[in-house]
Amino acid sequence: MPPFYYNSFHVTVPNLLESQQTGFQRFLFEGISRELSYFSTPIDHNLPAIGKIRIYIKHQNWALEKPSHGELWCKKNRHTYGAWLSVPVVLEHDLGHKKRSRIRLGKIPIMDSKGGFLINGVPRAVIHQVLRAPGIYFQSRWVGNKKKKKKRKRCYSATLISESGTWLRIEKDPKGRFWLWVKRNKKVSILLLLGLMGYECIDDTQACLFPSFIGVEEPNFLLPSLRWWQEDDDLGDHLPTIKWCAIHLYDAVFRGPFRRDLNLYTLTKTDKSASLRPGPPLYEEMCEEGMIQNELIEKRFYLGRLGRFNLERRLGLSNFWNCFLSITQSQIVHPLLNNLIEIEHDPVLYFGYKDLLRVMHRLALFTHGDEYEDDIDHLKNKRVLSVGELMQQELHRGMKELITYAADTEEWWKRPRKKRYKKYELALGWWDLTVQDFFPGTHVSEGFKRFFVSHPLSQFMDQTNGLAHLAQKRRMSCLGPGGLTRQTASFRIRDIHPSQYGRVCPIETPEGTSAGLVSSLASHAKISRYGSLCSPLRPVSSQANLTSFQYVSSQYEEKYWISTGDRMQVDGGTIVPARYQQEFVTTEWDQVSLIDVFPMQYFSVASSLIPFLEHDDANRALMGANMQRQALPLLSLERAIVGTGMEWQVGFESGTLLRAKEPCRVGYVDAMKIATQGRGINNSLIRFNQLSTYQRSNQNTCFHQRPFVSLGEYVESGETIADGPNTVGGQLALGKNVLVAYTPWEGYNFEDAVLISERMIYDHVYTSLQIEKHQITICETEAGPELVTREVPHLREQFLRHLDPQGIVRVGSWVEVGDVLVGRLVPRGQGYEVTPQERLLAAIFGERVVTMDEKCLRVPLRGRGRVIDAHWVHREDTSFGRIKSIYVHILQRRTIQVGDKVAGRHGNKGIVSKILPREDMPHLQDGTPLDMALSPLGVPSRMNVGQLFECLLGLAGSFLGRHYRIMPFDERCEQEASRKLVLSQLWEARRYTSHRWVFEADSLGKSYLLDGRTGDVFKQPATVGKAYMLKLVHQVDDKIHARSTGPYSKVTQQPLRGRSKRGGQRIGEMEAWALEGFGAANTLQEMFTLKSDDMLGRNKLLNTIIEGRPIPSFPSDLPEACRLLLWELRALCVRTQILHTTLFSSIVP
């Protein structure tokens, strides 16, 4: 990968998959050990027939077993690519006997070489999640009558966000009183929580002992709350002790399931045979055993290391620890507090007593204007969860279920075991006891399987092309568990924040309800260890050392003046654009401390691939970035004439190509493998590199690798030896350079329609490969096993001609619609009786009575092609019996046709409307016919002028034989730099080719075209050039649908809707108006009756067609939808009756 040079500064784009790989490595080396140590507490059992035993989990000696099969084998056989997590377990009897064994806790999926996971043979990817960082956040709101603005007052609050637990809000009302809000609608006095944490003073004299602790001279912020406490009839007679505060706090706030749990806990402590019954809970034993401290403070307000860091940063607690030492020996501080804090060693990882007082002090300072509110949308107040943290959370849940299962003594004795133990057989019961009786090894595996299959952040991997494969792994989402929802997310959250500059791409985001909630990492951004986004910046003082730069988070970036690196001389002084504290200003060069390292570091990988990006509207740039990920791999690839330079890096790290792992010499090359021999020290190392040929991706595209090296060639480490489906020589290649003109042609390119030449078909310019998967399951039924055989009765040999003797289609066969791929016979049920007609036919033709039904796998409509693979797959999970499946892959070659979608890199998309012969296409003055004609009206209205620059520069490059790599935002070097570059290259191309029409002074960038049908010159010149156009995955073969007969709804008897259900045409009132306007009365009547839900007329029509009689006009019967309405009314006890009448007769029931 060649480096970029920007302002004489050597820049190399970082590893684009580093965020995924680093997060998973951190989970393997740190997360597993942390979770196993969390559950390392011994488990005690008192079994009736065995006695007291204790189970120890030796978490220090855990290990991951090597995967038994490789990635390719797991993908083909639909298995999960993972490693078993094993740990030593010791069973210790109270008599001194011990048993040691290593058990498997579960199977952990392993990240493959491309940054994804193989779950049941299906590639999946886990994207990052953006959440509110744990810590404290101060905000305010207006209270009072909205109509009387003068009487409205501000109410200040502090929201505590825990890493795991309850969100807590502390509010200071206009009267100066402090309240505790839990679960939004529950409000109690803050003194309850203070008393619960150990604060036992209720008068003013004791509160005056806290000045050095809270950092203020007069601690009067507690006085309003204390006065309200003493004036309250229910609270004034009680001292806020821990036990009393717990009772009142749980009665007022924590009602529901948690309170029932406490009641059950208390009852089971006092009476082993007690059951849950209504009544007031008993808190005495709970308070004595310290459950209040454990359940409320440690579990519900757990901050974690990141939360503690953010809390200290926000509250300014750097000197607070020393102030706290002065009161730790005071009698008013509960002794419980001394066990909570270890000041010099480990920081407190949960919200404690001292933090609460400091927060109250900060809220009191808002009244005097000495505090500021927090911007919750700032990146410093958010954190990014990578795949490693998400998997660690899932491992925690699985281990918690496993330990709960192992610790349940009563349920353990009811579980099925090999032997039943008697009370007097102590030795026999102990020696037959195994560790596997307590740890079944399924909880962790099932937890990971649920996570990767059903979690919103675990997505079906996008394998349309290499860019889509890479961009998905750099995606971030605010949705998911603990995040936002599409329905409640406001515009403020979706909008671009200044702190995202250089960290989150401002362009690439989905269109629709997920806009702003799903975003992409900037090309140079990194995720730190604690989940903060960092951007590279270079200190000004280190200009001599051009390779030194540092990654800075948004929190520390606000302290410095940061410039983009370009300067401007104004009145003898150097003025530069800079940003400071989220503002974009101009300042003198002397104030600048940091400089950006790269002009494209603000955009994502897909956005960085758009040349002349600065000349496109943001909405069209968004479409261009998204549509590049939808480009199909073509049969013949071609590099873009005009690019940005990121093509090397994206192709290099897309995971689709094959690279040399060491300096070597190519010893053997064919279409299936490449053999290399090491050089130097590794001279004896011979490596066989297997190529992936004609593999199906998740989007049914063809993944195929082609050798890029020749026999005897010397290759260095990291160089490309085999190209992928979207790379040429290691560079990303998504489309083709075609000759286009922006000119109208008979209305066929009106709006977003595109006119193309038939050369696109004959030369296979936009021909792509599609691989369709067909699956059939073979299982055992109650009537017997299903059979796979070639001998299928009542089927002609024409449909069975491609089957082998086992009943499976032969690889390499060309199959048409209706051909049998797998012959399957399903046994009939036990209640089925052979009819007399079947016996008669069997006796006449001398055949046996068939007791099995034909359920063969056939080629569906528009599914013809070449069979490239057919194999058996045995299910990995055998809990539902031995179920086998047969997979058949059919390869199709699809040329471009009317209805296919094509697009450029600037959001200029369109549908192919007509394919013209080459001789009828408009052609240039040298006789070259156009490949594509686009509408010129789509450029000024959509403001994506970048496509014109690319088109003209591509024309110059095609004549000069050059490839251009244009850095976006080149206008910073010179005004109109893009226009000058394009015109200079066109002038050079004119001189090189001697074609005056390439560069004409009276119409720069335009040329007169000739009509291919008449040879006449068009009246106006048109812009002509070479544009890089893509063929998108939206193909007409996957969308077009027609139906003659098909299924009907069982309820309304109307045709189903949708292509997947073989649905039919549906008609409503607007369609009826259109037919009425054309006077098509018979068509209208037929669509509302025979083609809809007139069952009687439908049967009559079918009999008429079968008998070959002319179709008469059937009288319409009562529609089935009307019958359904009548039955629903009768179900509501509404009596309904159908009355028939004529024009001159009375009503007859």
Automatic annotation (TrEMBL):
Cross-referenced CDD domains: RNA_pol_B_RPB2
UniProt biased composition (Polar residues): 1046-1055
GO MF: DNA binding; DNA-directed RNA polymerase activity; ribonucleoside binding
One of the GO BP terms on file: DNA-templated transcription
Catalytic activity, reaction form: RNA(n) + a ribonucleoside 5'-triphosphate = RNA(n+1) + diphosphate
Domain spans labelled DNA-directed RNA polymerase subunit 2 hybrid-binding: 667-1061
Top-level enzyme category: transferase
Keyword Transcription: yes
The keyword Plastid is annotated on this UniProt entry: yes
The RNA polymerase Rpb2 domain, residue ranges: 133-198, 459-527, 1063-1139
Superkingdom as given in the UniProt entry: Eukaryota
Assembly with partners or alone: In plastids the minimal PEP RNA polymerase catalytic core is composed of four subunits: alpha, beta, beta', and beta''. When a (nuclear-encoded) sigma factor is associated with the core the holoenzyme is formed, which can initiate transcription.
Family stated for the protein in its record: Belongs to the RNA polymerase beta chain family.
Stated name of the protein: DNA-directed RNA polymerase subunit beta
Source organism per UniProt: Klebsormidium sp. SAG 51.86
